[in-house]
Write a structure and sequence with these properties.
The chain has about 400 residues and is of the alpha+beta class. The protein is built from 6 helices and 14 strands. It has a domain at about 125-400. The protein is about 25% helix and about 20% strand. The strands form 5 sheets. It has a 5-stranded mixed β-sheet with strand order 4-14-11-5-6. It has a 3-stranded antiparallel β-sheet with strand order 3-13-12, with helices on one face. The protein has a two-stranded antiparallel sheet with strand order 1-2.
Length: about 400
């Protein structure tokens, strides 16, 4: 029997007649064999190969370049080079106590010293180092000519190659951005655990949503039962209020929601236009569909720049994180924590200065032309400076 997938003509009329009869009710639904008339993309090549890549057929009538530009989701983490280039230092101003005013209690026969020295107290932190990687590809001059019908078709293929090359760069950069967010979450969790270990009840950088909700309502919901229709809408209403309250507290100048450095009190505040809110995309969709359908409209949750994240680390386990984080401890020293295994991470609030990166080098250069092989290579070199600062405000939200 003829088969279009074998480069043979097939009479489609009988199939269309049968489908039309089923669609209009002139006949009942019937098993319809479409295997010989529907063309499928396949790996089997039924024409000659080009001699270079051994993967192109020779001069088909139409070539589809199966590619589209890719854009990542963490672009708002990028900082300008002037802000995060070279060695970066951050000047932090320490908290101080007020002094007793003396003008209402002037001492008889004495004087008030107006020249007492009281220096500004600061803590300086530094950001060092860059990470690099590269990728190179080979561009041939004329060996692919038999694979395309015209110079324009060959040009389209080369353009597709360059788009693919750029997509790879963007994907790898997104991997770096994702790693920054995951490290920040794991570092906050580690620092919070240390605070709790030192003094119970002092950890404020991780919020266990269900535990708090159950305590306040007297319920006993789990991460499974919370999604039942009668439970989820009230929970999302409470969640909206809880997150909004966190944002309000972050706007207040305080030492809450940040890593404290011993004997170096630093009060910070994060206004709404400097606060970012990343939420697990699946959880955001569930809130939108099952809970507060208008919670992300202009009238709600305007306390932060919001973004849905499809997954934190692995697409196979979207709400999980498995990271050995780098972080700054209470002594102000860089430390590497024990591995952190987290599940049910549904969101993170953080100051714009808490997570960032800048690309300090992004150059694509050609090699000299190889006249015998009639090809040249192009190489992209990247250098990236990354930054996590858990002394800035940030809160991890967990559905437990």
């Amino acid at each position: 029997m003829p088969n279009v997938n074998l480069m043979q003509w097939e009479d489609l009329a009988p199939i269309v007649t049968s489908l039309q009869n089923q669609a209009t009710g002139r006949s009942d639904a019937a098993a319809t064999d479409l295997s010989t008339v529907i063309s499928q993309m396949q790996t089997t090549l039924r024409a000659g190969y080009d001699p270079v890549l051994a993967s192109f057929s020779q001069q088909f009538g139409l070539t589809i370049i199966a590619l589209r530009p890719y854009t990542g989701i963490f672009a708002d983490l990028e900082k300008d080079l002037g802000r995060w280039g070279a060695i970066v230092r951050k000047i932090n101003y320490l908290e101080e106590d007020p002094e007793t005013a003396q003008f209402m209690d002037l001492p008889e026969g004495d004087s008030i010293d107006p020249w007492k020295i009281n220096k500004f107290k600061v803590l300086e932190t530094h950001l060092y180092g860059e990470s690099t990687y590269k990728k190179h590809k080979t561009i041939t001059r004329d060996q692919l000519r038999n694979a395309f019908t015209s110079p324009a078709a060959l040009g389209e293929f080369i353009n597709g190659c360059m788009t693919h090359f750029e997509n790879l760069q963007r994907q790898w950069l997104e991997d770096v951005q994702r790693a920054l967010v995951c490290n920040f979450i794991a570092a906050k969790y580690t620092a919070n655990a240390a605070m709790e270990s030192a003094q119970a009840g002092t950890g404020d950088m991780v919020v266990h949503l269900l535990s708090e909700y159950n305590t306040e309502t007297g319920l006993d919901l789990t991460d499974v039962t919370v999604f039942q229709p009668d439970n989820f809408k009230p929970f999302t209403e409470w969640l909206y209020a809880r997150v909004n309250t966190l944002a309000r507290f972050m706007r207040a100048r305080s030492e809450k929601f940040q890593q404290r450095i011993v004997n170096k009190p630093i009060a910070r505040h994060t206004p709404a236009d400097r606060l970012k809110f990343y939420m697990l995309g699946k959880f955001m969709d569930q809130i939108d569909a099952m809970g507060l359908s208008n919670v992300y409209n202009d009238n709600y949750l305007q306390m932060a720049t919001k973004r849905g994240v499809d997954f934190w680390q692995s697409i196979n386990s979207p709400d999980s994180i498995s990271i050995t984080p780098s972080y700054i401890n209470t002594a102000g020293e860089i430390a590497t924590a024990d591995p952190v295994q987290l599940e049910k991470v549904v969101g993170v609030l953080f100051d714009d200065d808490a997570i960032g990166y800048t690309v300090t080098l992004d150059e694509t250069d050609p090699s000299p032309y190889n006249q015998d092989g009639r090809y040249y290579n192009i190489t992209n070199n990247k250098a990236i400076k990354t930054m996590n600062d858990i002394t800035e405000k940030g809160v991890v939200l967990m559905l437990d």
